[in-house]
Write a structure and sequence with these properties.
This protein is α/β, with parallel strands linked by helices. The strands form ten sheets. Strands 24-29-30-31-34-33-32 form a seven-stranded mixed barrel. Strands 8-7-4-5-6-23 form a six-stranded mixed sheet, with helices on both faces.
Length: about 775
């Protein structure tokens, strides 16, 4: 048979029609599979095209790329209300991906649904439960041993319900998706906040909680508030020490950690072509740190090159034929537009304690001196889902080679995390791994590791003030090593490598000199490396488990005495009454991320056991009453104690409670445990100035009320000793505020208004007790 592209050309000439119409004809014949692992699940560009044309005719205006992909996946494009930032869209995603820490609860919820098979292609990826200690091979063996029960549960649940299973050691979920599952125009949801990584291959890939994943796996249309679209126009080209990471570090400095909330960030412009496909993925990945729904790049030759190199030339050829639908329309409108000249972009480093505190590398040393941040760098860490590509490792190795040539090694400790087994095997073959080892580096397992707090750090004591630099994405207080005094900075892998060699934040590789062992000064040259290997990728070990065709005999066991896994019990339904005399569990001061609400690190082992993991509820949040973490007043005993213990006391005594929060409450990870835990321990509402998108949805899914002050200043009217009554639930309707009566201990009262973003479907979740309860009601 003639090559696909040749068939296209012949048919174009014969029919004399536009390219994408030709592709519609061929799509049915070609039947290009979504991935090599699912040969009978096909890419439906023809349906995407049909839906886009329906919506374009309705809206009668040019469409952004984000709109094309999102609206192209509408359940009912002909009648769906479409208004950016207001309407709720009912969507049909192409696939689901889950990492092992969140997959446990997602699969437990799916089991509770009573369904026999997933309705869309789905995968589980084992990357979160491997702790970095001494090095990749030994750490992986240890993880397989101590997590055997969880891995067995995920493997057997995957086999039972038709979910592909990537074994521990296979790599980080987002790198695996980029290598195997992402493609231009895909709509993918993943139970991890950095799922947007797939936008580097032109897909709309969105981080969600496990309950959202269950909806999609159950074949139910998935709801998403119609996102606004922020355009980032790139001009010029990257060169020298500037890297793709610097683009998102710069954008984070502009938009802050909440500036992208409710929006998709869409990169476009002539500068896009100067960025590799994996570089685009880096930018999209860290878009989670500005609160964006996701980020995306238009399909181009860099994506085509990556698809071909990863064995998916057939997808690249099909995408070529549908390219009109995989790029924005000329003249499309963005709700906000940012312009960045890549030729003028300087290397950046962001931190500490927040990923939007941006500094040029040339200036961070002076800022650190002024602020009293430790200048000496204790550890440099490269890798993570954000920066672990072949190109990233190559650029770091290029820096390392220069230092080695002058007899130098790292002054700081240095670790390397390959993004996948394929990356690990390829950088071993091509010598990059050995160069980094020669510099003093330790190659860790193909896993998340220190980026998510899976790091058995030995070089400091807790409470010791120190600085680390990483190529990761987040640097919240205590995130990497559970030490609140660790000042973590995020930057590109090559800058991390240079700083680890110099050992100080005051070093600027663009201008400063190092001293070789021969006593001569030298300056590091800007690194250069191939974006893809010259030879084919080395796939390494086979770590994928296909679900069997017949799973009727497959059993999934959860021991009733397990400390790692626990079957779920339904949450109680709403009793039809207003919420009277709610006790305030904690009034949170300042930043409260999902790390503060449900810490990771050592707590990851309990992600499949709701009652056990609830013992970390809000232990990182700062109580405004005393300025301390994990210390709140028990309103009955008047004694101060840990937050989880106090919540359990209230639950035992039938006292319902509420949390008061500040701005952007729940930013960070997609972990739905931060919503499940307060629900499990008797919480009824979370009242804040504003919410992060994923966390707000997760709270709704579990039957909680995420509410915001109509007047943010009302935050100051509530005190930890007050009681609250929330009225208006009997007439709970979209857009109508609820009343909150604040009852002060002295007998006085104040009434304030609380806003919400519930739609009719979400109100049904609340009334049923959770989205899962509602699903079961509809099945009956």
């Amino acid at each position: 048979m003639a090559p696909y592209s040749l068939l296209v050309t012949r048919l174009q000439k014969a029919l004399g029609v536009r390219q994408y119409h030709v592709a519609s004809v061929l799509c049915q014949r070609a039947k290009v599979a979504m991935s090599h692992f699912e040969p009978n699940e096909y890419i439906h560009y023809d349906l995407l095209e049909k839906n886009i044309n329906i919506v374009r005719k309705r809206l009668n205006r040019p469409l952004t790329l984000s709109e094309k992909i999102v609206y192209g996946h509408l359940d009912d494009p002909a009648s769906q209300e479409i208004e950016r930032g207001k309407s709720y869209l009912r969507l049909r995603p192409d696939r689901v991906a889950m990492q092992d820490a969140t997959a446990q609860m997602a699969m437990l919820q799916f089991i509770s649904s009573g369904l026999s098979k997933v309705a869309v292609p789905s995968t589980i990826h084992c990357d979160h439960l491997i702790e970095a200690q001494v090095g990749g091979e030994k750490d992986l063996r240890r993880a397989k041993d101590i997590n055997q029960e969880v891995y067995n549960f995920l493997a057997t649940a995957g086999a039972k319900y038709g979910v592909g299973f990537w074994k521990p050691g296979s790599g980080i979920i987002h790198q695996i998706i980029l290598e195997n599952y992402a493609y231009p125009g895909v709509l993918l949801i993943g139970t991890d906040s950095h799922t947007p990584n797939g936008g580097g291959l032109g897909g709309i890939c969105i981080g969600v909680g496990g309950a959202d994943a269950v909806d999609v796996m159950a074949g139910i249309p998935w709801e998403l508030k119609c996102p606004k679209v922020i355009g980032v126009k790139l001009t010029g080209s990257l060169s020298g020490w500037s890297s793709p990471k610097d683009v998102i570090l710069k954008v984070a400095g502009i938009l802050t950690v909440k500036g992208g909330t409710g929006a998709i960030v869409e990169y476009h412009g002539p500068g896009v072509d100067s960025i590799s496909c994996t570089g685009m993925a880096t930018i999209c990945n860290m878009g989670a740190e500005i609160g964006a729904t996701t980020s995306v790049f238009p399909y181009n030759h860099r994506m085509k090159k990556y698809l071909s190199k990863t064995g998916r030339e057939d997808i690249a050829n099909l995408a070529d034929e549908f390219k009109d639908h995989l790029v924005p329309d000329p003249g499309c409108h963005y709700d906000q537009l940012i312009e960045i000249n890549l030729s003028e972009l300087k290397p950046h480093i962001n931190g500490p304690f927040t990923p939007d505190l941006a500094h040029p590398v040339a200036e961070v040393g002076k800022v650190a001196e002024k602020e009293g941040w430790p200048l000496d760098i204790r550890v440099g860490l490269i890798g993570s889902c954000t920066n672990s590509s072949y190109e990233d490792m190559g650029r770091s190795a290029a820096v390392a080679k220069q230092a080695l040539a002058h007899g130098l090694k790292c002054k700081s400790q240095f670790t390397i995390t390959p993004g996948s087994e394929q990356i690990r095997a390829t950088i071993e073959r091509d010598g990059y791994a050995q160069i980094l080892r020669d510099l003093g580096g330790i190659v860790l397992a193909n896993a998340c590791g220190p980026c998510i707090g899976q790091w058995d750090r030995k070089d400091i004591k807790k409470g010791e003030k120190n600085t680390i630099v990483t190529s990761y994405n987040r640097n919240f207080t205590g995130r990497n090593d559970a030490n609140p005094e660790t000042h973590a900075f995020v930057t590109s892998p090559e800058i991390v490598t240079a700083l680890a060699i110099a050992g100080t934040l005051k070093f600027n590789p663009e201008t400063d000199y190092l001293m070789g062992t021969d006593g001569k000064k030298f300056r590091l040259e800007a690194p250069d490396a191939d974006e893809l290997p010259k030879a084919e990728f080395d796939p390494g070990q086979d770590t994928y488990q296909h679900p069997p065709k017949d799973s009727s005999g497959q059993h999934v066991d959860v021991s009733p005495t397990s400390q790692r896994l626990q079957l779920l019990e339904p949450f109680d339904k709403w009793d039809g009454k207003d919420l009277e005399d709610l006790q305030i569990l904690i009034k949170v001061k300042g930043k409260c991320t999902t790390d503060h609400i449900s810490a990771a690190g050592p707590w990851l082992k309990f992600r499949g056991h709701l009652d056990n993991i609830s013992n970390n509820l809000l232990i990182g949040a700062i109580n405004i009453e005393n300025g301390k973490a994990n210390s709140v007043r028990n309103a009955v005993t008047q004694e101060f104690g840990p937050v989880p213990d106090t919540a359990r006391y209230y639950k035992k005594h039938g006292i319902r409670w509420v949390v008061i929060g500040d701005e952007n409450y729940g930013e960070g990870s997609s972990r739905e445990h931060a919503a499940l835990e307060p629900r499990h321990l008797g919480g009824r509402a979370i009242i804040t100035k504003s919410f992060a998108r994923i966390h707000e949805t997760n709270l709704k899914k579990q039957g909680l009320l995420p509410l915001t002050f109509a007047d943010p200043a009302d935050y100051n009217k509530i005190h930890p000793v007050d009681k609250l009554t929330i009225q208006g639930l009997k007439d709970f309707t979209p857009g109508k505020p609820l009343k909150c009566i604040i009852k002060h201990p002295n007998g006085t009262q104040e009434t304030i208004l609380l806003n919400h973003t519930f739609n009719e479907t979400q109100i049904e979740w609340f009334r049923a007790g959770s989205a899962l309860n509602r699903m079961k009601e509809l099945q009956q």
